[in-house]
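Researcher: We're teaching a course module on how sequence relates to structure. For the next exercise, students receive a sequence and then see the predicted structure as tokens, so they can try to spot secondary structure elements on their own. Here is the exercise chain.
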Amino acid sequence: MNYISTTSNQALMAQALKSLTGKWGIAIGSWVVFILLTGFSFNISIWEWQGDNGENYKSSLDIIGWIIAGPLSLGFTSIILLISRNKTPHFTLLFSGFRRFAVSLAAYLLMVIFMILWLLLLIIPGIIAALRYSQTWYILSEDKNIGALEAINKSKEMMVGNKWKLFCLYFRFLGWFVLCILTLGLGFIVLAPYMSVSFAKFHDDLMSDNLIEKTDSDEKSQETIGDKLTESHELENDNKEEDKGS
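Model: And here is the predicted structure for the students to work with:
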């Protein structure tokens, strides 16, 4: 299958803003909770958190962060996809990834491992790898029966010929990223949902062209079947007329 994003990045960003109208609350709220839950254990690791018995709980928090990051990433992606499709998701969808705990955890760990291995070759191969795996969470969100490695491989297939366009979409947010740093990070509360919905629009743009292509092929196959049925009926009628004549 050929997956091609044909809509301009500027148009995708404009569509994202339109889809966020009236949904900024759920978008910002889900992102904040997602960051607090997945980032808390990693951020607090810079401190030494000791219990009353003097035991350090730093490692335990790190493990918890790794375990919940996958399911929460899947849940957050499901929310963002619905917003990008002009639907209003429920906040509890953020935790829906735990219903597919094994798959989401496996996908998260595999992507981290693969990207670390690519980063060992230099930063550019690592960036390319991240772009190749970028559609994994969307694929998992849409297909409840697909496995982790299969979703990663499908993401690689979808990004053939589209990595540069997605990189340019990331790059368009660079100026906003700098402004958010100047606001001591507060601006990310708005920027992160905006970016997330824009990337979801990119995914839908990839899929829409593929759906059009698939629909066209289905219509052609239906036409072929219809032609064959018509021909068979005509042959039957001809045979009946010949029998009557004889």
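Model: If you want an answer key for the exercise: The radius of gyration is 24 Å. The CA atoms of residues 6 and 205 lie 7 Å apart.
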